[in-house]
Amino acid sequence: MRRRSATSMPTRAEAYALLTEYTQNPGLIKHALAVEAAMRAYARRFGEDEDLWGITGLLHDFDYERWPNAPDHPLQGARILAEKGYPQSMIEAIQGHATYTGVPRRTRMAKALYAVDELTGFITAVALVRPNKDLQEVAVSSVKKKFKDKAFARGVNREDIFTGARELGVDLDDHIAFVIQAMTAIAPELGLAGGDAQASQVS
């Protein structure tokens, strides 16, 4: 693939092709789509570049299946994105969503990515234990109740969710409701529109 200029943006189709080149796990792909949806929704809310934010969400974990251990993820992915000429703001946001990289979250986009990453995974887990596995059945109160159950979705860091909302400057309840709404808009793609749904792995 020809190296793009430092200021050019990949298309969504190019980004999705990169995601699926490195990621075959359906659950990880669904997680990427969920984060993308939340990022696009926040970009619209804040009047930011929706494609930049959305593609950042789509690719934030694209290297995870191949390099699941810290610090390879997300640093291997960041290296690949840099080699392909992806925007530096995107690369820094992706690095910053993993606190162990030490990359500060300076931009609103970086803060939004950190805020929605773990939350989308947690909301997915809540939806999957609903009778119909339907996002429309997930209420803010249900999500907050599950926060207190340490045995539930134990791989999701609750403190990252709380810290993310604070960094982004949004009320936690509003944040949860907003992300549920964003995910509900693509619920069929996530397998969370009712009926049978396969469990999704999140990172």
Describe it.
With 203 residues, this protein is mainly alpha-helical. It has one domain: Hypothetical protein af1432 (Orthogonal Bundle). It has helices spanning 12-22, 26-46, 50-59, 72-83, 88-96, 108-128, 140-147, 158-168, 172-184, 187-190. The longest helix has 21 residues, at 26-46. The two termini are 28 Å apart.
Summarize the structure.
The chain is mainly α and 203 residues long. The chain contains ten helices and no strands.
How much helical structure, as a percent, in the residues? 55-70%
Radius of gyration, rounded?
A: 16 Å
CATH class: Mainly Alpha
| Number of H/I helices | 10
How many domain units? 1
Characterize the biggest β-sheet.
none
Topology-level CATH name: Hypothetical protein af1432
Mean pLDDT: 92
> What spatial form do the alpha-carbon principal axes imply?
globular
CATH hierarchy: architecture: Orthogonal Bundle
Q: Give a count of the beta strands, DSSP E runs of length 2 or more.
A: 0
- Stretches with pLDDT under 50, minimum 5 residues: 1-6, 196-203
N→C terminal distance? 28 Å
Beta-strand share of residues: under 5%
Top keywords for this entry?
single chain, mainly alpha, disordered C terminus
SSE layout and pairing:
Layout: H1 12-22, H2 26-46, H3 50-59, H4 72-83, H5 88-96, H6 108-128, H7 140-147, H8 158-168, H9 172-184, H10 187-190
